[in-house]
Amino acid sequence: MASIKHPVFEAHILEGLCRTIGDTADGLTGTEIGQILLNSNIPDIDPQNTKWRRLYSAFAEWQNQHQCSNHILRFVQDALQPVRYIGKEEVFHNRRLEVNKRLSFIGTELTEEGKFRLVAKATTIADAEQRASRLKHKLENRNVHTAVFEYCKAELLFENYFHSVFEATKSVADRLRKLTGLYADGNALVETVFSTTNPLIKINNLLTDTDRSEHIGLCNLIKGVFGLIRNPTAHQPKIKFEITEEEALDILNTISYIHKRLDKAL
User: Fold this and answer.
1) Tens-place pLDDT, residues 68-113
2) pLDDT tens digits for range 217-243
3) Between these two residues, 266 and 55, which has the higher pLDDT value?
4) 45-79: string of b/e by CB count within 10 Å (b at 16+)?
């Protein structure tokens, strides 16, 4: 990356980058900005201004003079070195993902290891948002089943918790239909599939009371997800069924667990 002359940021993208790094509440401190500018060999030409304007003045002056963004990227890399965020992992991920939304417009991305890599250049806001979804990142860290991403990709990437959960719950019913050839839905589908007298899917050999209890337990878990999530989300307006990020993560993790149990079905 060091040998590549990186293109300059357009003014509005550079401003967004500076606002993210110099955010009043969550950004770098004034002292940190001064030190990292020094480390990056970028003159601190406006030190008395607000943090993001101070950065913007320094970055704009430097890239206008050198017609590239290399030292700005050096600043970003220094500011987002993982070692700076020990004990502050959430701050690191949120800040990195927001920065990457801006970097994507010049075809660059900062990895979790604090290294740059080249990526296809983003051309729209939606494209940039999709690449830097915080929810998707958290789900990947939880090793969520691929079916969750397959069924709610667009909703996840735009961090739409309501529709992410709705689409993911539908993935379970679709999976059961594909595994069994049935056309039913809801509780009727689940009860037929997990019948204890003639099961179409078995997660164990059903030889002991423990096996039977486990089999019925998964059946009830799936029915519970349908009753708690799919039915309300299908019949209530979004404004009346609010789902927070943490709730979405918990629900999607439960759906992931169901898919992983189905992976092992007999």
Assistant:
1) 999 999 999 999 999 999 988 888 888 898 899 889 888 888 988 8
2) 999 999 999 988 866 544 444 444 678
3) 55
4) eeeeeebbebbbbbbbebbeeeeebbbbbbbbbbb
Buried b (16+ CB within 10 A) or exposed e, 182-209: eeeeeeebbebbbeeeebebebbeeeee
Q: How many residues does the chain have?
A: 266
Tell me, yes or no, if the pTM score tops 0.85: no
3-state SS assignment for residue 116: strand
Taking only the tens place, the pLDDT of each residue in 154-198 is 777 677 788 888 889 999 999 999 999 999 999 999 999 999 999
**86: Cβ contacts below 8 Å, ≥ 6 apart:** none
* Residues 199, 174, 216: CA angle, nearest 5 degrees: 35
| Cα 59 to Cα 14: distance, rounded to the nearest angstrom | 8
Q: Rounded distance, CA 260 to CA 254, Å?
A: 10
**CB-neighbour burial class of residue 21 (10 A; exposed 0-12, middle 13-18, buried 19+):** buried
